UniProtKB/TrEMBL annotation:
Reaction equations catalysed: ATP + (deoxyribonucleotide)n-3'-hydroxyl + 5'-phospho-(deoxyribonucleotide)m = (deoxyribonucleotide)n+m + AMP + diphosphate
Gene3D superfamilies: DNA ligase, ATP-dependent, N-terminal domain, DNA ligase/mRNA capping enzyme, Nucleic acid-binding proteins
SUPFAM superfamilies, alphabetized: ATP-dependent DNA ligase DNA-binding domain (SSF117018), DNA ligase/mRNA capping enzyme, catalytic domain (SSF56091), Nucleic acid-binding proteins (SSF50249)
EC number, as in UniProt: 6.5.1.1
UniProt cross-references to PROSITE patterns, sorted A to Z: DNA_LIGASE_A1 (PS00697), DNA_LIGASE_A3 (PS50160)
Keyword Cell cycle attributed: yes
Listed GO MF terms: ligase activity
Protein's organism: Chryseobacterium profundimaris
PANTHER family cross-referenced by the UniProt entry: DNA LIGASE 1/3 FAMILY MEMBER, DNA LIGASE-RELATED
Listed name of the protein: DNA ligase (ATP)
Enzyme class: ligase
UniProt keyword ATP-binding present: yes
Length: 526
């Protein structure tokens, strides 16, 4: 754990990518192979399930420290993170426990079948043998909240530099449902575990936001243009009569879309299709909020399957009869995809529409009207482009329509975590509903550090109530909130939900009586 704690300290103390890569490589050069596997697992989101109730952790920390509950709550509100709060209030360790990261992970996983008393004894002993940073990591691993500010790209670049493997090969190797106790570090970085079963997906090819004039792209007929949809990007895999559906977030979501699974199961051959999973009814793409109702449910009723039917808009063909097609140009892959779907005619899987246009000006007009069909904009793909792992600038562009915006007032604020734990960075906004204010969105990004400090000063001076770490503030600060989409939602007091809300700007020129009205906002819903 010592070396892992040193790595975390090094990563948290810099925002320079090269320094983070060097820190990861330094760890890989020193750590045993079992710990290297756990590093990859933890950094790619393969955390073990929480086997200790965080409320118990809080109670045990209070038992050790004998702090009054109100003081703990004040500390928690100030710090903003439970694991960090506990690490800070515990007395210095009286012993030194020196175990590897993999040993700790195995101990934590084995807590699953332990009694509460056995869990308590394990936690007490561990706290008494770890320093502050080690305790913090231990608490986060124990509570299932371990996250680290290292992107997948940074991790892959570090592994590439360490192993001298191709980055695309490593990305493919790390995808899928491998488990840390079932694969070796050598198998991971040498890609020997690629396709150990039929479910293995490919790294998704991603696009950059369009950042140049259309004329700079060259001739219009060199580009394949499709609508950009707001659904779930997925890979539909059929191999050896087995069917798997993977989301872009590397979640296996097969059981959430039984109608797609059944259709693919009835098709012939082996293939991997890349496409967008959407809620489509009567030929119309429904709002993402409707699709969201289908997600993460243990059971799907006949009523829900009927009211929110699913389709896949197929973009690409990555594999056919065990042949990897990714190095072929998209024009060729598209032709093969069309032939596959034409021969099979699968219900619920439709090839994405190719937009025909004469010139770039015409394409701009098509983009401007794309919201009318619940599209986010356009995708521009060079016809000669391969299917890259991740992003490659110049081949694929996403050209989204301008976001929708509303003016709302800040009514709740909560402190952030990490380097922003001393400032209020998490905000809840409200709009008018007759003579009341009703919450409509939370947002965490969009302000400069200077503006965050200004807002924090306002919250400290104008807090009305507090609920744990949350402060109710006087409704005076008005902000322009940008978002990608809007739909009706029973889960929000306002009755609507915003898609990807963020702060566009602080409207210091507006007063609270100038914020938007809920009924007018609802008119934005298609």
């Amino acid at each position: 754990m010592k070396h892992f704690a040193e790595l975390i300290n090094a990563l948290e103390s810099t925002n320079k990518t090269n320094a983070k890569i060097d820190a990861i490589i330094d760890y890989l050069e020193r750590a045993p192979d079992e710990d290297k596997v756990w590093l990859i697992a933890l950094f790619t989101g393969k955390r073990p399930k929480r086997n200790v109730n965080t409320n118990y952790m809080k109670e045990w920390a209070l038992e050790i420290t004998q702090l009054p509950f109100w003081l703990f709550q004040e500390s928690y509100s100030s710090v903003g993170d439970l694991g960090e709060t506990i690490s800070l209030i515990l007395p210095p360790p009286e012993e030194k426990i020196d175990r590897s990261l993999s040993d700790w992970m195995n101990e934590i996983i084995n807590l699953k079948n332990k009694t509460d008393q056995e869990k308590k004894e394990f936690v007490f002993t561990s706290w008494n043998g770890l320093d502050y940073t080690e305790r913090l990591i231990f608490n986060k691993l124990l509570g299932g909240s371990f996250r680290i500010g290292v992107s997948d790209k940074t991790l892959i670049n570090a592994l590439t530099k360490f192993s001298h493997q191709e980055s695309s090969t490593l990305m493919h190797s790390l995808m899928g449902k491998w488990l840390p106790d079932e694969v070796s570090f050598h198998e991971l970085i040498s890609a020997e575990n690629i396709n150990p079963d039929n479910s293995k997906p490919y790294p998704f090819c991603l696009a950059y936001a369009l950042e140049k004039d259309l004329e700079e792209l060259g001739k219009p007929d060199e580009w394949l243009i499709e609508y950009k949809w707001d659904g779930i990007r997925g890979q539909i895999i059929r191999r050896n009569d087995e069917v798997f559906i993977w989301s872009r977030g590397e979640e296996l979501v097969t059981d959430q879309f039984p109608e797609i699974k059944e259709v693919v199961q009835n098709m012939k051959g082996d293939f991997v299709i890349d496409g967008e999973i959407l809620a489509v009814k009567d030929g119309k793409v429904l709002n993402f909020n409707e699709l969201q109702k289908r997600l993460n449910r243990k059971t799907l009723t006949k009523k829900m399957l009927s009211e929110i039917p699913i389709q896949v808009f197929a973009y690409d063909l990555l594999e056919l009869e065990n042949n990897d097609l990714r190095e072929k140009p998209i024009s060729a892959r598209r032709a093969m995809l069309e032939e596959l779907l034409l021969n099979e005619s699968p219900e619920n899987i439709k090839i994405s529409e190719v937009i025909e246009f004469e010139n770039w000006n015409e394409l701009n007009n098509i983009r401007e009207n794309s919201r009318d069909i619940n599209s986010e904009g356009l995708m521009l793909k060079q016809k000669s482009s391969q299917y890259h792992s991740g992003r490659k600038k110049g081949d694929w562009w996403k050209w989204k329509i301008s976001p929708l915006t509303i003016d709302a007032v800040l009514i709740y604020a909560q402190k952030g975590s990490g380097r922003r734990s001393a400032y209020y960075t998490d905000y809840t906004f409200a709009v008018k509903n007759e003579d009341k204010l009703v919450t409509i969105a939370k947002a965490y990004s969009g302000l400069t550090d200077k503006e965050i400090m200004e807002v924090s000063k306002f919250v400290n001076k104008n807090a009305i109530e507090k609920f744990g770490p949350v402060r109710t503030v006087k409704p005076e600060l008005v902000f322009e909130i940008a978002f990608e989409g809007i739909g009706f939602s029973n889960r929000h007091k306002s009755g609507v939900a915003l898609r990807f809300p963020r702060i566009l700007r602080w409207r210091k020129d507006k007063k609270v009586d100038e914020i938007d009205d809920l009924e007018e906002i609802k008119k934005l819903i298609q």
